[in-house]
Write a structure and sequence with these properties.
Distance between the termini: 56 Å
CATH class of the largest domain: Alpha Beta
CATH topology of the largest domain: Dihydrodipicolinate Reductase, domain 2
Largest sheet: 10 strands, mixed
CATH architecture of the largest domain: 2-Layer Sandwich
Shape: globular
CATH superfamily of the largest domain: Dihydrodipicolinate Reductase, domain 2
Structural class: alpha/beta
Number of helices: 10
Oligomer: single chain
Length: about 400
């Protein structure tokens, strides 16, 4: 029996897109499925690490998706482009009969996500969002245990991610920006790009179904900026979710040393903890009766999951638009909570010119202090802190700035 061929369109092969190309160029060990790269859409494909290898395979290159679809079709479109293009490109792929794996986050705004949902429903295809953890056995097992009631009701969850970013990170032309030169919403931030995996994960594991997340009720955000960018590079956030659960999130790019992600999820019967680089990256659930359940770190491929779904015609996607929606709703609500981003005092900002990055003196300690005390910096009396407004999310329909 011959293997089923799955044709794949790669939209964006630089940056993170290199990861997908690399996986497709390696030997694929599923004898029942044969993925084939049907084409590449990229304005600057030569910047990809795999440009020459793709040329040697005679893969056709195009600068727009319209050009590709005028000559070809694809079972699956893999979109690895800046945030402002996700909605349009996903809808275009769906309209041309392709299912979609779109890199995180879904899009800039909640109204764009609804457009994507409508386009998906019209097409009968699936849209997967590339939050890596959601595709792993580790998180899937944890989520199933949450849904089954093993830990009892959720009480409060918190995550901290302190990741330094250099000047080169913000030089891409869209990172750290609120709008493009053409007026499109980007809303790239520390919470809505690099660390969004971990904000999403708190919402995701609390969803009542495999492909759903927690329903959010309100958000209160403190947004700060040290780098010379449009959006925020530091945040401390409190979210209220359905059932009274509290979710706290702390993240920054303005530190000199990295830490995290680290999280603590409190439930009625257990406390679930994780810190990157510790205990073999295991997630541990410590029950009040003294027992411990361990979730081992195991790699998984979201691309493989989507290829298999495209081949079978059965979605089976753990993280689609509904599951990933809460992260967009939260980050939109954060900007509504504090529309005027608070700049750190000039006297606290430091520069490392040799490496090329900006950091804030004492910020790492302040965010870790806030994390450990389940509080926002403004509640702990930090002089630089500014309190945001409470934004209701139950009927939040659009981000308008």
């Amino acid at each position: 029996m011959s293997a089923k061929q799955v044709s794949i369109l790669l939209v964006g092969i630089g940056g993170y897109g290199n990861t997908h190309v690399n996986e497709l160029l390696r030997a694929y060990d599923d004898s029942d499925i044969r993925p084939v790269i049907a084409g590449v859409v990229d304005v600057y494909p030569e910047k990809s690490n795999h440009y020459q290898a793709l040329q040697e395979l005679n893969v056709p290159f195009y600068t727009t998706m319209e050009e590709f679809y005028a000559h070809h079709g694809a079972d699956l479109a893999v979109i690895s482009t800046p945030i402002q293009f996700h909605c349009k490109q996903t809808c275009l792929a769906l309209a041309n009969g392709s299912s979609v794996l779109c890199e995180k986050p879904i899009a800039a705004t909640v109204q764009e996500v609804r457009q994507m949902m409508e386009a998906r429903d019209r097409s009968g295809k699936f849209v997967a969002i590339g939050f890596d953890w959601s595709f792993t056995p580790q998180i899937q097992q944890l989520k199933q245990d949450v849904m089954s009631g093993l830990f009892g009701k959720p009480v409060r969850l918190k995550t901290v991610v302190l990741w330094r970013r250099t000047d080169s990170y913000f030089s891409s032309g869209w990172k750290g920006r609120q709008k493009s030169d053409q007026g499109e919403w980007i809303l790239d931030s520390v919470a809505h790009n690099a660390t969004s995996h971990y904000l999403h994960n708190m919402f995701y594991i609390l969803g009542s179904k495999t492909d759903e997340s927690l329903r959010l009720q309100s958000v209160e955000a403190e947004l700060y900026r040290a780098n010379p960018i449009e959006n925020f590079d530091t945040c401390a956030v409190r979210v209220q979710g359905e059932g009274g659960v509290e979710v706290l999130f702390y993240a920054t790019h303005a530190v000199s040393q990295n830490f995290g992600p680290s999280f603590c999820y409190e439930f009625e019967k257990a406390v679930i903890t994780y810190t990157s680089g510790q205990n073999g990256n295991r997630i541990e659930a410590a029950f009040k009766d003294g027992t411990v359940k361990v979730y081992e770190a195991r790699k998984a491929s979201k691309l493989r999951t989507c290829i298999q779904a495209a081949a079978s015609g059965e979605a089976g996607i753990p993280c689609g638009l509904e599951a990933a929606y809460a992260e967009v709703l939260c980050t939109n609500g954060m900007l509504s909570s504090m529309p005027d981003i608070h700049s750190f005092p000039v006297e606290s900002i430091r520069r490392d010119e040799e490496i090329g990055f900006t950091w804030v003196e004492g910020l790492k300690e302040a965010l870790l202090d806030s994390y450990h005390r389940w509080s926002l910096p403004s509640e702990l009396g930090y002089e630089w802190a500014a309190k945001g407004n409470r934004t209701e999310l139950g009927n939040y329909r659009a981000y308008v700035g």
